Amino acid sequence: MGKTGENQAFLDQIAALRETLVDQLGPQLIQNPQLADALTQQIEDLLSQTFAEEAQSPTPPDGGFAELVGIGNEAARKVTDTRLPQGVEDYDEQVASERILAVADLYYLYQHEKVGVFRVVKKLQELFNAGAVRLSTGDGAYGLYRFDRRSILRYTQQQRLQTYRRVLGYSAVPLMPSAKPNQEFHGLFTQFINGVAEFWRDKRISDVIRERAFDPSFGSIATVRRSGLDLRNNLKWSSYGHVNVFRIEVLQLLDEAFKILGAEDIKKLFGADNAWDVIEEVMLRYFKEHVNASQRHRLAVSGRSMIRWLAHKYILNTSRAEFEALLREIADPAEEWLTSAEVLGIAYRGHTQQVVLGSRGAAGAMGSGVRNNGYRGNRHHSNGSKGLKSAQLN
């Protein structure tokens, strides 16, 4: 099938096969849309297998140029006798899972950084060293003493913010030499989450109003797959470097910080029930900031779940039934993320009819004089009139 005429005849036969199947199985296809999906998948597999076998066949030394222009004994008598390559190798959508998983943890860490966990520990340490709070020999006091003992070996706040900006596009600190901010991440991430949430909203509506409750013909997996692949490709190029070891170290630091903030003497000092109450009290009392700890934590947890899902090969699945079953895992996290993001004003659901001009500006403080760079994305359209808005990150 390497010749132009053979290729044309093969594609015509495939088209005739499709028409024949649709003509003979028309009533069954209407009653059972899953049958149409199965037939389409089998034909696509046949095409892929045929083209893959052709790609492995030997090619002429000149690539078929001589027969095309009519040189030598192998000159083609007709244009249909010339060699017709099928194209180049498909774009590689494969991504190393450990790099995407590292980005998922990095997103989780960024949201806790925004809450101010490390700023709170530093402030308590400052008060403890100054004798300004009633801490002495408890576990929290001892933890505050030890927290900075290995500071010279850890990433500094400046380095952490530089990493967040390089990989996620968040914060506005000057980057290290040769680094570039990933300004597209938030828009692509929000678009993917909106696609997942919209798909399941459509699916739920279908389950209610349609006669066949599990008819898979309602809702498009193509939108979800394409937005997911775009996000994976974006993370593919921004997840190189020290991200993997960075997230391990900072997750250890975050764990240590929460053990200090959850110590009995620290909680007693502020009349708090848990570490989160301590964070909110310290941020309000000493930094005059009301942190949306609950919303930020849900962003961290649900956002990490969404990115972790992309680390696996689920998004590459072209079978509708299998893809939908795998996508169900992140249906609820997508809605949770959007709900919390709407409260914070950093993203909106796909049905929001509002256009936001693309711009970048300074937004809420990250602490220590560093300001977070706001992100505004252009409206993305999905299913005609439905739009997506990425708002300013506060």
Structure explained in plain terms:
Helix content is 59%, strand content 4%. It has helices at residues 4-24, 26-31, 33-56, 65-69, 97-115, 117-130, 139-147, 157-168, 185-209, 221-238, 243-261, 264-270, 275-286, 293-310, 320-327, 331-344, and strands spanning 362-367, 370-373, 380-382, 386-388. A hairpin with a 3-residue loop joins strand 3 and strand 4 (386-388). Helix 5 (97-115) packs across helix 8 (157-168), helix 5 (97-115) runs antiparallel to helix 14 and helix 6 (117-130) crosses helix 13 (275-286). The radius of gyration is 28 Å and the shape is elongated. The chain is mainly alpha-helical and 394 residues long. It contains 16 helices and four strands. The model is unreliable at 213-217 and 353-394 (pLDDT under 50). 32% of the residues are buried. It has two domains: 4-81, no CATH class; 97-336, no CATH class. The strands form two sheets. A two-stranded antiparallel ribbon has the order 1-2. A two-stranded antiparallel sheet has the order 3-4.
